[in-house]
Amino acid sequence: MSGFFDRFKKKTVDAKEETKDITDHTKETAGNLSEDWDKVLEDLEDQEEDK
To answer: What is the spatial distance between Cα 18 and Cα 33, in angstroms, rounded to a whole number?
Structure first.
């Protein structure tokens, strides 16, 4: 019976690590999108000023 719990624990630990990796990737992507969006807004403001 302990073999079952060992496998379950390993799967749980693996899932936690995978979740952390996904979370880190999402935060990085969101940060990049935020920077890109700021640039787009600045470009739009510059275009409005040029008119």
So the answer is: 22
